[in-house]
Write a structure and sequence with these properties.
The structure holds two protein chains of two kinds. By secondary structure, chain A is mainly beta. Chain A is 14% helix and 45% strand. Chain A has a single domain, classed as Lipoprotein localisation LolA/LolB/LppX (outer membrane lipoprotein receptor (LolB), chain A). Chain B is mainly β. Chain B is built from four helices and 18 strands. Chain B has an 18-stranded antiparallel barrel. In chain B, helix 2 crosses helix 3. Classes of the chains: A mainly beta, B mainly beta. Chains A and B meet through strand 1, strand 2 and strand 13 of A and strand 1, strand 4, strand 6, strand 7 and strand 10 of B.
Chain lengths: 249, 434
C-alpha cells in the first residue's frame, strides 16, 4: 500500500513544475535600461557631486555642486565651491537648460554640448537625465558577464547621437559608456567605478571618470556622495526659483 | 579613564581618515555641511591704456586748454564684499562695492551698496523681496531694449557686478503638469524715488514706478511680457523670447514699445531739440556652438530712439564746426557750449539706430584648460564704422581670473567709431574670488 503512494508522490515531484529551478526570463534591453536608471538615480533626490578636472601634468581643479532631481526630467545644480563659481545654478527641464550666474543676474539658455566647468564633462554629463528619457535601445548583446546596450538618441536635441553601454548583469549598473556623435566619431568614454552606498541605502557606482580623444591626456572625475531621497515642489525647478535655490540646502 | 577615551577617539578618527582616503578617490565633501550664512567677495585690479585718437572731435572738446599727450593710463582697484544670512523662510543679502579710480581727470574712492535686501519665501510658489536688488530683464547678449530697468552692462565682461534698484516686489510661480505651457512666473515690482539713493535716475522725489514681468515656458520657449510705467518715464511694453532649436543652437529676441518717449538730437547749428514720439526697438540674435566648441553670437539691434543717418551727420558736423570756430576765434565758450550739448548724447553706449554685434569665442584651445580667447565686433550699420575687440579670459589657478582685451575703433572722421576718443584701448584686469 505504501509503495504505490510513494511512487505516485515521486512521479508528481518529477512532473510538477519547479519554479526555482526554471531558467529566468531574460531581461529585454528596455527593462535593463529602466533598471540602470533606477539604480543610478532612484527617484526624487538630492546629492553632492565633486568634479575634478585633471590635466596631463597632474594639475587638478575641483568643483563641488549640489544636485537636485525630480521625476525623470527635472534637474537643478548649485555650485558651492570654489568661490569663483559659488552661487551659479543650472536648471534642466527635458531638453531645456539654463545657467544662472549671480553677477549676471538673469538666467541664460545654455546648450547640452557646452560645459559650465571646463574640462571633459559637458552640461549633458553634469545634468544628466535618466538615459531612458533620451535614448531608445537599438540593440542588446552579451559581453563577458555584462550586457552591451546599443542606445540611439530619441531626437537631435540630445548631446550624443549613440551610446554603447556595458552593464553588469547582476548589479545592473553601467561599467562603461562610449558616447558617439552622429558622424560615428567617439566623443568620450565614461567609466563607472566604486560601487558603494552613496547615501540613504542607494548602492551604485560612486565615481564616474571620463576621458576623450578630443582631450588627449586630460581626465575628469565626478564623485557622488551624501545622497538623500527628497521630493521638492515642481516650482523649485523653474527659472524664477533658480536665483534662490540655495535657500533650500 | 580620560586617557582611554582619548586613545579610542584618536583611533576612531584615524580609522575614519584612512577609510575616507583609502584607494584612489576622496569621497569626503566637507562643503556639504549646511550653513545659515555665507561670506565672500572679490578683489580686482584693472589697468586701461588710452591711446588717444588725434582726429576725434570729442577729445578736442574734452581736453581743450590741456595737454593730455597722445596717451594716458587709467587704474582701477576694486573690493566687493558679499554676505547673506537666512533662517527658515527668510534671508538677508548684502553686496558692497568699493572702488578706487585713478584717471587722467580725477582720482578717488567710490563706495556703494550694490545690493541689500530681505527675501521672504513662505512657499515655493511665492517670494517677497524688499530692498536694493539687481534687475536684469531681457534675453539679448549685447543689448536689452526690453530691459527698461536694467543698468548699462558690458557684454564683453559679463561677470561685472551691476548696481541694484530699490523696490518692493512679489514673485509668483506656478508649474503646470503635462501640456505646452509648463511654467508661469509673475514678477511685480514697485520702485520709489527717495532722495539721491533710491532710483533717482528714474524721476522726481516721491515718484512711484511700477514694473511687471510675466514669464511663460511655452512649447519649450522662454517668453516674457514686460510692462513699466511711472510719472517721468514713458509707458513701456516689452516682449522677449529664447529657444534652443538644437542642442547647439539658440535663438532669442526682444521687442520694446515706448509710448511718448523722449528723442534727443542736435541740428547742424548745435541747437538741442527734444521731441516726443512712440518708439519701437527690437533685437534678434542667435548663439551657435560648433563641433570644435567655437561659440558664435550674432545680434542685430534696432534702436528706435537713436540718431538717424542725417542726425548723426549733423551731430558730427556741429562738433567739427565748433572746433573750427574756436580755432578761428579762440573763444573758449564755443567749446564749453559744444561740450555741454554733445556730452549727453556721446556718453550713451550707442548713438545710432542700427547695429550688428558678432562675438566668436573658442573654449580651451590648444588644450589649455580654463582659457577662452574671443573676439567681438560692434558695427554701426548706418555709417559702417565699427569696433573690433579681441580678448581672453584665463583662470590659471582656482579663484584667480585674468582678463585682457583691446578695443580698436575703426572708421573715418564723422562716423561713430571713427570719432571715438581712443584710437586703441588695451585693458587688463585680474580678479581674485574668496
Amino acid at each position: 500500500m505504501n509503495r504505490p503512494i510513494t511512487l505516485t508522490a515521486l512521479c508528481l515531484l518529477v512532473l510538477l513544475p519547479m519554479p526555482s529551478a526554471a531558467p529566468a526570463e531574460p531581461l529585454s534591453g528596455g527593462e535593463i535600461l529602466r533598471q540602470v536608471d533606477r539604480n543610478l538615480q532612484p527617484g526624487d533626490l538630492e546629492m553632492y557631486r565633486k568634479i575634478i578636472n585633471i590635466e596631463p601634468d597632474g594639475k587638478q581643479k575641483e568643483f563641488v555642486l549640489w544636485f537636485l532631481k525630480k521625476d525623470r526630467d527635472k534637474v537643478v545644480t548649485l555650485f558651492i565651491s570654489p568661490a569663483s563659481e559659488e552661487g551659479r545654478a543650472t536648471l534642466r527641464l527635458g531638453d531645456n537648460m539654463w545657467l544662472y550666474i549671480p553677477n549676471v543676474g538673469k538666467p541664460i539658455r545654455i546648450t547640452s554640448m557646452q560645459s559650465v566647468v571646463g574640462g571633459v564633462f559637458n552640461n549633458a554629463d553634469i545634468m544628466r537625465l535618466d538615459y531612458g528619457v533620451e535614448y531608445d535601445v537599438a540593440g542588446l548583446t552579451g559581453d563577458q558577464g555584462e550586457y552591451l546596450l546599443d542606445l540611439k538618441a530619441k531626437s537631435g536635441a540630445v548631446a550624443y547621437d549613440r551610446l554603447k553601454m556595458w552593464v553588469l548583469e547582476e548589479e545592473l549598473v553601467p561599467t562603461r559608456i562610449e558616447c558617439y556623435a552622429a558622424t560615428g566619431m567617439l566623443i568620450k568614454t565614461l567609466h563607472f567605478k566604486e560601487i558603494r552606498d552613496i547615501g540613504d541605502g542607494v548602492v551604485r557606482p560612486a565615481v564616474m571618470e571620463t576621458d576623450s580623444p578630443l582631450y588627449k591626456g586630460y581626465k575628469s572625475i565626478m564623485i557622488s556622495a551624501n545622497l538623500k531621497k527628497r521630493s521638492l515642489p515642481d516650482e523649485v525647478f523653474t527659472l524664477n526659483y533658480l536665483p534662490r535655490v540655495k535657500d533650500l540646502r | 579613564m580620560r586617557t582611554r577615551i582619548s586613545l579610542t577617539l584618536m583611533l576612531v578618527l584615524l580609522g575614519r581618515a584612512l577609510v575616507l582616503h583609502a584607494g584612489e578617490y576622496d569621497f569626503a565633501i566637507p562643503e556639504a555641511e549646511k550653513k545659515s550664512y555665507d561670506l565672500g567677495g572679490r578683489l580686482e585690479t584693472r589697468v586701461i591704456h588710452h591711446r588717444l585718437n588725434d582726429d576725434s572731435a570729442r577729445n578736442a572738446l574734452t581736453y581743450y586748454g590741456k595737454d593730455p599727450g597722445n596717451a594716458h593710463t587709467e587704474w582701477r582697484g576694486l573690493v566687493e564684499l558679499s554676505g547673506s544670512y537666512g533662517r527658515e523662510v527668510w534671508r538677508a543679502f548684502l553686496l558692497t562695492h568699493h572702488e578706487f579710480v585713478d584717471t587722467e581727470e580725477d582720482d578717488g574712492w567710490d563706495h556703494d551698496i550694490y545690493e541689500g535686501f530681505v527675501s521672504l519665501t513662505p512657499s515655493a510658489h511665492l517670494t517677497l523681496d524688499a530692498g536694493k536688488k539687481r534687475i536684469l530683464w531681457g534675453k539679448g547678449y549685447a543689448w536689452n531694449p526690453a530691459g527698461f530697468l536694467n543698468r548699462p552692462k558690458d557684454p564683453d565682461d559679463p561677470a561685472l557686478n551691476l548696481e541694484g534698484r530699490v523696490f518692493a516686489g512679489a514673485d509668483l510661480i506656478k508649474s503646470l503638469p503635462a501640456g505646452p505651457l509648463s511654467n508661469i512666473g509673475i514678477t511685480a515690482l514697485v520702485l520709489p524715488v527717495l532722495g539721491d539713493w533710491a532710483n533717482e535716475d528714474l524721476g522726481g522725489e516721491g515718484d512711484l514706478y511700477a514694473a511687471l514681468k510675466i514669464y511663460l515656458l511655452w512649447y519649450d520657449t522662454d517668453i516674457d511680457f514686460i510692462y513699466f510705467d511711472g510719472p517721468d518715464q514713458p509707458r513701456s511694453l516689452g516682449l522677449d523670447f529664447a529657444k534652443n532649436l538644437a542642442e547647439n543652437f539658440e535663438v532669442h529676441g526682444e521687442f520694446a514699445f515706448q509710448q511718448d518717449a523722449a528723442r534727443r538730437a542736435l541740428d547742424p547749428g548745435g541747437l538741442a531739440r527734444e521731441t516726443r514720439e512712440d518708439q519701437m526697438s527690437f533685437l534678434l540674435g542667435l548663439r551657435y556652438l560648433n563641433a570644435i566648441e567655437t561659440t558664435f553670437i550674432v545680434e542685430y539691434y534696432h534702436n528706435d530712439g537713436g540718431l538717424n543717418e542725417n542726425e548723426l551727420e549733423d551731430f558730427f558736423a556741429y562738433q567739427t564746426a565748433a572746433l573750427e570756430e574756436w580755432d578761428r576765434t579762440g573763444r573758449n565758450e564755443i567749446l564749453q557750449r559744444a561740450n555741454l550739448v554733445t556730452r549727453p548724447l556721446s556718453m550713451g553706449r550707442n548713438l545710432g539706430t542700427d547695429y550688428l554685434y558678432v562675438r566668436v569665442s573658442q573654449k580651451e584651445p590648444f588644450d589649455i584648460l580654463y582659457f577662452n580667447p574671443w573676439a567681438a565686433a560692434v558695427v554701426n550699420l548706418q555709417d559702417l564704422s565699427f569696433n573690433v575687440q579681441p580678448g581672453m579670459t584665463w583662470v590659471p589657478v582656482t579663484n584667480l581670473e585674468i582678463n585682457f582685451r583691446v578695443g580698436i575703433p575703426i572708421g573715418p572722421p564723422g562716423t561713430e567709431f571713427g570719432e571715438k576718443p581712443d584710437a586703441l584701448r588695451p585693458e587688463f584686469w585680474v580678479r581674485y574670488y574668496f
